[in-house]
Design brief:
By secondary structure, this protein is of the alpha/beta class. Helices cover 24% and strands 26% of the residues. It has 6 helices and 13 strands. It has helices spanning 34-44, 58-65, 85-93, 119-127, 194-198, 217-228, and strands at 3-8, 28-29, 32-33, 49-54, 74-79, 102-106, 109-111, 134-139, 152-154, 157-159, 166-173, 202-207, 211-213. It starts with a strand and ends with a helix. The model has no long low-confidence stretch (mean pLDDT 94).
Amino acid sequence: MRQALLLAAGRGERLRPLTNALPKPLLTAGGRALIEWQVERLVRAGFTELVVNHSHLGERIEQALGDGARFGARIRYSPESPALETAGGIAKALPLLDASPFLVVSSDIHTDFDYSSLAGRGADIARRREEHVAHFVLVDNPPWHAKGDDMGIEDGRVTRTSPRLTYGNIAVFHPAAFRDIEPGTCLKLFPWAYRFVDEGRVSGERYRGPWVNVGTPEQLAALDRRLAS
């Protein structure tokens, strides 16, 4: 599994005014843009075929990352106008991906998660997509999302009856999961993707290492201080 989709189309409303003149993925922490941290980690893990979706000030992202050569990757872009939310954005980007499973990660998280550990999950999804269509990485509920999402993990499967955890914005999908979504449709990933959870077709793991979803100026500043130290 070498292909990954980086989600970078969010407006970053809670990060205003920082995002008035700069797209959220280009905000910096530890001396580099959030999306650059992600690209470098993905490439080190063997993901060298990258697609980035974008909307608000998306041309700035293309200018910053270019064709990906300086990272050792090939980067292509899926522009959206207006932004199509997560599931809608993935569906629009499908023509830029091949028919094999792919990784989906948000460009505004910072984590030490080992993306290379997902290769086996992708291989299993490729073999058994009727039974196994996705793999979710869940994290402990952060203070700003204390109740978690409507899912947890039991015996390696994501369920909606387990104690709640938070979706870590890291997943592997088979492209067939999105092919019923009409391109151009605006659609959030959840609750739409719970259909696969309810069918028992989503495996999962709980990641307890460093993970930050940057959503406010305070969170960005805290991450910057941590990385600087």
